[in-house]
């Protein structure tokens, strides 16, 4: 089985590629802009016909698209998150129409949730900013492509290797900088929001299941931890793992808080469809994920 992974250098993509390489009988190809890539695939700028030629040579049985932008201006987000999947689907229709496409979407596509009501895949989508809107545009491109495709809408990923571009990684970086200084003060933004956190290793396992499942899959499947966790609890748990002895001040203007908290105060995904279609449920608790995040960044 030839599996082409796009975006394998990113946080989710690296875990996905590692998990796929452990799959018996799988030949994993890497697509991207790096000279070391097996397939030259810059989804933000490549023309569909050029990408189709690359796909024809690679002849993948499955394509996993982990490429995406979480930050940057609206133009960058649109190029990567919206144009990228559209070009990808056009190229696959021409060069590898029988290949399965597994595309990573985002729970941000749903927008604000209703407290105590996990959102299902059939819920209306009301993204509140360019990130969620461009991810939704990518999802629409995939689900309307006519391909054998599934979008995995991922909640808030956390776990080993979490980058500082996301909240858990930022908090961990601040705690490492503060150390055990009892005079240290962590000035954070609004931590009142509730988020659905999912271990990145569980996301990677779900991708493998989706890539290898026989027969067609539902067009969209939610991946999450299945419960809404106060962001404040995540910060306190990480502080405990770090042995932080200082003070946490919440509410200050800070990039370490959740910029979406005021607009999306509650988010939780119903993950029952993924269990039915893939036999998937999270294997790692949030405590597991935070411990792996903290231990993974410690200096030997």
TrEMBL record:
InterPro entries: Epimerase_deHydtase, NAD(P)-bd_dom_sf. It comes from the Bacteria. It holds the Pfam family Epimerase. Residues 3-224 form the NAD-dependent epimerase/dehydratase domain. Signal peptide: none annotated. Belongs to the NAD(P)-dependent epimerase/dehydratase family. This is Nucleoside-diphosphate-sugar epimerase. It comes from Streptomyces luteogriseus.
């Amino acid at each position: 089985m030839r599996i082409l992974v796009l975006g394998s250098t990113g946080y989710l993509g690296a875990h996905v590629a590692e998990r796929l390489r452990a799959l018996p009988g799988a030949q994993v190809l890497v697509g991207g802009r790096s000279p070391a890539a097996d397939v030259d695939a810059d989804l933000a700028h490549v023309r569909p016909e050029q990408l189709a030629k690359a796909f024809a040579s690679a002849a993948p049985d499955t394509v996993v698209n982990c490429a995406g932008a979480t930050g940057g201006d609206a133009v960058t987000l649109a190029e990567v998150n919206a144009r990228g999947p559209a070009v990808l689907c056009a190229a696959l229709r021409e060069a590898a129409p029988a290949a399965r496409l597994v595309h990573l979407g985002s729970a941000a596509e749903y927008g604000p949730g209703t407290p105590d009501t996990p959102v299902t895949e059939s819920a209306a989508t009301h993204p509140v900013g360019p990130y969620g809107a461009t991810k939704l545009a990518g999802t629409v491109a995939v689900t309307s492509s006519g391909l054998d495709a599934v979008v995995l809408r991922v909640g808030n990923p956390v776990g080993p290797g979490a980058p500082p571009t996301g909240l858990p990684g930022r908090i961990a970086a601040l705690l490492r900088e503060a150390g055990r200084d009892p005079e240290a003060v962590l000035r954070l933004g609004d931590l009142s929001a509730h988020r659905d956190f999912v271990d990145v290793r569980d996301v990677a396992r779900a991708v493998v299941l989706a890539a290898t499942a026989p027969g067609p899959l539902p067009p969209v499947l939610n991946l999450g931890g299945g419960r809404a966790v106060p962001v404040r609890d995540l910060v306190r748990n990480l502080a405990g793992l770090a042995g932080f002895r200082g003070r946490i001040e919440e509410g200050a203007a800070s990039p370490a808080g959740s910029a979406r908290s005021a607009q999306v105060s509650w988010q939780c995904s119903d993950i029952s469809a993924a269990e039915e279609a893939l036999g998937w449920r999270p294997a790692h608790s949030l405590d597991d994920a935070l411990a792996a995040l903290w231990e993974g960044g410690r200096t030997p």
